[in-house]
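Protein Record: Sequence and Backbone Structure Tokens
======================================================
Scope: a single protein chain, as residues and as a discrete description of its fold.
Tokens: labelled as protein backbone structure tokens, with as many entries as the chain has residues.
Position: the record begins directly beneath this header, with no further notes in between.
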Amino acid sequence: MIFLLVLLPATGLTIAGYFVLYLSSRTDGTLRTFGRYLGFWAFTLAGLLILAALFAAAHYGHHGMGHGSYCPWHGAREEGWEARPGEGPQGPAPSAPPATPGAESETPTPPTRQ
């Protein structure tokens, strides 16, 4: 659908490019050169619009590197992540640091002044 919508501005740019090229062929000097560049620029923009529409139509509905993968601009996909803890966009839960034996029973002594 996006490809069909982009045909209108691309057609308008193509017609404007031909019109500018026609008018520039009837003038002399720097205006002729400017008109030629402006006409080719209109053709270039029309071609880029067509290429962008083809790219958008080819990638419509793809939100990442596969179905169910995390995509930062579409948010986290929450379906199914609850069934698999430790996986998904949040990653594994951080583990607690290992406790040293006897470290809890020792009370720190304050430094003494001499």
The longest helix spans residues 30-58. The CA atoms of residues 88 and 100 lie 32 Å apart. Residues 2-58 form one domain.
